[in-house]
Amino acid sequence: MTDRALSVVRAGALTTVQDRGRPGHAHLGVPRSGALDGPAAALANRLVGNGPDAAVLETTLDGCSLRPRSAVTVAVTGAPCRVRVDGRPAAWGGPVRVRAGAVLDVGPAELGVRAYVAVSGGVAVEPVLGSRSTDLLSGLGPTPLTDGAVLPLGAPAGVQARVDVAPQAGPPSELVLRVFLGPRVDWFTAGAVRRFLSGVFRVSPASNRIGLRTTGPELERARGEELPSEGMVLGAVQVPPAGAPVIFLADHPTTGGYPVIGVVHADDLPAAAQARPGTAVRFVAARGRGGF
């Protein structure tokens, strides 16, 4: 067996392989998937000298532990956390050299939700429809990591960044999301639209890679009939009958039958990936055209 591999010592609550996703397959019922915090994943890849399409690991809340079979360069970005190599502190947000057989421990997120672990050469699991991403909704891609699993690595293709620590935006204390109203804003009362754009919602513990669920003011419908299923896009804010908005993230279904009151600006979605349960959420009207 090749020595270009990682052994999983501790998988964590939910650690998955992610890259830039598999766009262009919605007509087949396949979501885009990919890293929820794209900028953090891209930074991790740059720090270790990987290309933009290299696959990384996305952890959720409690990190993971890994043992490389050969010396590698790693970088951990996204949610701030303690990084250790064989028990000794190492840099978060910068390139770290890990010798063969040493244990890299990515600790629990101190802020935010998801950390990204890039390894020189990238995680080289078999791609499906052009992507190595784990899709929790459709089941495509590799399964979430388990203790004892072995992940193949690609050959290093570049030189690690010449920085000690790279600056990163911190996880949000309040999530402010620009939203383009529509396409089904007319399904809601005028009062519901006002509450949507002025009220304070909270991130629900039921959130996941499929959608960021919220609690807060109820958004009443102006129309009571059922809406035939129609296409859904990344960032769509769907409102189920209970009236609490759900923001569709990377593993979202490609169709849905609940009305969409608006679509979140794509540039605001990475912050949603780092919003912990209980975080305040505000929707503000975006300027320009939504493009949906």
From TrEMBL:
Domain Carboxyltransferase positions: 27-290
Keyword annotations of the record: ATP-binding, Hydrolase, Nucleotide-binding
Domain of life: Bacteria
SMART domains: AHS2
PANTHER family registered for this protein in UniProt: 5-OXOPROLINASE SUBUNIT C
Protein's recorded name: Biotin-dependent carboxyltransferase family protein
